[in-house]
Amino acid sequence: MSIAPDILFEVAGFPVTNTVIATLITDLILILIVIFVNKTIALKPQGLQNIVEAGVDYFHGLVSEIAEKKTNFIFPWVMSFFLFIVISNLVAQFPGFESIRFSESPFLRAATSDLNTTLALATVSIIASNALAIKHIGIKEYLKKFISFKMFPIFMFVGILEFANELTKFISFSFRLLGNIYAGERTLGEMYNLLPIGLPLPFMALELMVAIIQALVFAMLTMAFMHILSDKSAH
Amino acid sequence: MEILHTFGLETELFLFQIINFLIIAGILAKFLYKPLKNMLEERKRKIAQSLVDADNAKEILENAGQEKKKILSKAKKDADELAAVIKVQIANEKQKAEEQAKERAQQIINDANVRAEVELENVSRQAGKMSVDLSEKILSKVFDQFFTPQDKQQILSRALDALAKGNYEKGSN
């Protein structure tokens, strides 16, 4: 199994990979949650509404503690990253992932074990963070962070480092998630090969934890970057 | 670029993932977070309102309690006053009844005295009458025993004479 996703078939020239199928399953689950919650939403919560409400309330509280006035902008991003990544990761733990074959390739593979997905998420997170920064502190103040002739050449060098820092975020965001999920999949695959009964169980438990922790890390880092970048005192 | 190809990075897939995530994020923001946030705010508002209502109810209850205490205290005071008035009235009534009873008793005593005097007079009169009758009976018996009919006739004649002459007392002596 290569780190690159397997192309299953093409639709009008678009390569449909096993991670794209997993992404669509994640989308479907999220949309079903949205439909179910909207249908059953009540002042006295029951069943799934309790779980979703608890999650939304927890993240909203967390974001509002840190971001305060910027909560309304930051919260939807943070919550969406968390939900998308956690569902993608958890869905991959279901039986059938990796095991169902389509033309000798696994039909399903965790969406977050594909660099296309993790890099896309990182790109959205970084662009949204910078957009929020421009909105809050203004383009002039934002650019000063990267281009400054104050105490030449010290701040100019600092600006270059800041720019490099922004670029490394793409790598750190995307490869952290990709590495963790892909490594987990590989480990589980190897354990199944070694001893299919019993041995994969502790690793599955570990993968469940990793699935939640990685989603939380991505969401929290997004929140931190969004808050720091849009904070005037940090510039 | 070779390394990116090794990782399977494809422009179409990368763009698909970006667009897909933005759409999902938009759907979640509009149809999940917004209604849930509204619901949470509504619940918080209702809880806050309920707390305010509970505080109001508590205040009303406290006021009612104070009002109750006040009413009870007033009622007790009124009852005490009424009891005092009734006590005075009872004492007056008792005194009045005692006076009336004394008066009545005195009247009964007076009536009894009057009746006793009348009875005594009657008794005396009857006793006098009875003594006259007795004397008469004794006399007639004595007469019958000691006098002959001629003597009786003689005495009767002499008495009638004396009566006729008007010196009954002299003659009786």
Question: What are the SSEs and their pairings?
Answer:
The complex is a heterodimer of chains A (235) and B (173).
Chain A: E1 7-11, E2 14-17, H1 18-40, H2 48-67, H3 71-91, E3 101-102, E4 105-106, H4 115-137, H5 139-144, H6 154-194, H7 200-229
Helix pairs in contact in A: 1-3, 2-3, 3-4, 3-7, 4-6, 4-7, 6-7
Chain B: H1 2-6, H2 11-146, H3 149-165, H4 168-172
Characteristic terms for this protein:
heterodimer; A: 235 residues; mainly alpha; two-stranded antiparallel sheet; 6% strand; globular; B: mainly alpha; 0% strand; rod-shaped
Characterize the structure shown.
The complex is a heterodimer of chains A (235) and B (173). Chain A has one domain (7-234). Chain A is 70% helix and 6% strand. Chain A contains 7 helices and 4 strands; from the N terminus they run ββαααββαααα. In chain A, the strands form 2 sheets. Chain A has a two-stranded antiparallel ribbon. Chain A has a two-stranded antiparallel ribbon with strand order 3-4. In chain A, a hairpin with a 2-residue loop joins β3 (101-102) and β4. In chain A, α2 packs across α3 and α3 (71-91) packs antiparallel against α4. With 173 residues, chain B is an all-alpha fold. Chain B is rod-shaped. Chain B has one domain (19-172). Chain B has helices at 2-6, 11-146, 149-165, 168-172. The interface between A and B is large, with 41 and 33 residues.
In helices, the fraction of residues of chain A equals 55-70%
Percent of residues in helices of chain B? over 70%
Biggest sheet record of chain A: 2 strands, antiparallel
User: Based on DSSP secondary structure assignment, what is the total number of beta strands of chain B?
Assistant: 0
How large a portion of the residues of chain B is in β-strands, by DSSP E?
under 5%
Tally of strands of chain A: 4
Question: How much strand content do the residues of chain A show?
Answer: 5-15%
Low-pLDDT windows of residues of chain A: none
Globular, elongated, flat, extended or rod-shaped: what is the shape of chain B? rod-shaped
Q: What average pLDDT do the residues of chain A reach?
A: 91
| Biggest β-sheet description of chain B | none
Distance between the termini of chain B: 193 Å
What is the radius of gyration of chain A computed over CA atoms, rounded to a whole number of angstroms?
21 Å
